[in-house]
Amino acid sequence: MPELKQMLLVEPENILRRTAALTARSMGLAQVQEASSTAVARQILAERPFHGALISIDAGDAFDLTLLDLVRQGHSASRPRIPLAVLASRCDDTLLAALRERSVNRIVLKPFRARALLDALAALSGS
Amino acid sequence: MFNRAKVAHMIPAPTPSNEAERLAALYVLLLLDTPPEERFDKIVAFAAEEFDVPIALISLLDTDRQWFKAAIGLGDTCETGRDISFCGHAIMRAEIMLVEDAQLDPRFADNPLVTGPPHIRFYAGAPLILSNGYALGTLCIIDTRPRQLDPIALAILSTLRSLVVQELEASHA
Question: What ipTM was reported for this prediction?
């Protein structure tokens, strides 16, 4: 059996994050490391490499692209070009341009469902 | 809310062979008839939204009733008779019990929960089996129209069941 790809899931909502991560493992989609915040994710990204990441970028009324930049600029243990997907409550032209600039592979919009996260993780694993 | 008059042909929920031990394992958790708790309410709310169903429950099976530790979509109802419960059937196996259309299932077609409120058509119940092996109840999702669940949905429901079991066992830690 091929080794599962290592994915990082950054999502503050506990049940959604745990459900997606545990189901991805049980279905053999990916091995998912969970992070509940940007601060935790920053530490994990510094310590170990990932094949891809699914990152919540909502920060109140704004968006936090810190982790995307950190990866893309090579300041993590992962390759800078790993596939990235984001979770966002909404997406306008400005955000879309910013995500394109960072070569984000996929955007998951609200309402967030575990199935949508699993689809994104599967897509990242196959990238 | 629930009419128990017509119970002539349905198959009443069976009793597990380890019923006395199962009930002891349930009672020691001190959860029956306790107030709602956010940790359980959040899971049934998540399940209702994830699966787009009107009803989601954490049902615990007492001697002659099923009592809902958490419930979405049942109003003020907090228990029903165990004999008419779907969950009483579901705890007899480890796997998720799927009833895609209760009107076509001889076990449930004339069950008062099918023929009357809440008019169950679809039921999926994941048994809540503790690490000691006792099935205390179910995490279940219910719809008033026939449904099917694909393997991804079944896996998600199974994961949510695991989260409930973790919380149940934390109650006794």
Answer: 0.93
